[in-house]
Design a protein that fits this description.
about 280 residues, alpha/beta, UDP-N-acetylmuramoyl-L-alanine:D-glutamate ligase, nine-stranded mixed β-sheet, four-stranded mixed β-sheet, 8 helices, about 30% strand
Amino acid sequence: MLCVIGDLVEDVVVRLSQSIVPGSDSPAVIDRRLGGSAANVAVAAAAAGCATRFIGRVGDDLLGAQLVEQLEDAEVDARVQHGRGRTGSVVVLVEVDGERTMLPDRAASTQLRDVDASSVDGVTWLHVPAYSLCAEPIGTTTRALARHVRRRWGRISVDVSSVAVVRQFGVDAFADALRELQPDVVFANAPEAELVRALGLPLLVVKRGADPVELVHGDGRTEQVAVDAVDGVRDTTGAGDAFAGGYLVALLGGAETTQAAAAGAVAAATVLRANSVDPE
């Protein structure tokens, strides 16, 4: 079983029709959807037929209840705390050229605590976005659950997730967290990869958009895996998480690393195509 620990929030995707006009109206198409890196990975993995568990926290509000219901509808085993406060949201500004600006309010997500270790019993692979390591008390909770999984011979993956988040947390502190978790696989886009490339990770999977995926092995060997082009990409939100989900499901199914990267690229392409359709 795959388990993912982290954020379950609402993504409010604002797709601009033109450049923002300061102090006046700027036409846009607005879409609200389930979000959070961890939740996105869980949904992608479940869609690929993998038994998947999600551990996280939402607020004691209607939005939180709706997001948990959506997660369960996606056939994810949702182990979600409902705590005081509000459920998180992320506003994603997508400019005309496709550039994204994220405005996160993680709210209750970071307050994940007091999770019994039995919640990860039976888990053979634990996936952890950097968001789950770079705040408290969720960071302490995540590391404790990771140690429990590792003691039972489970494997672990980490997604670097955000250059800004890691730098605010501290690059050295994040490197220490990776050394503690000893992940089998680390996912990153090209800028994120530069923060961890020198750590000698067992496997660094570098997502590079339309360019080939780069697999950097601990012995210094590198491999390139071509990805199919997706025309008319307008919004890349969630594509990297879908890649991780597709990759991990393939790996758990016995695929080689290059085959897993190809499967991840297919999952990402599915999200990119869906994001290019305007909501009704």
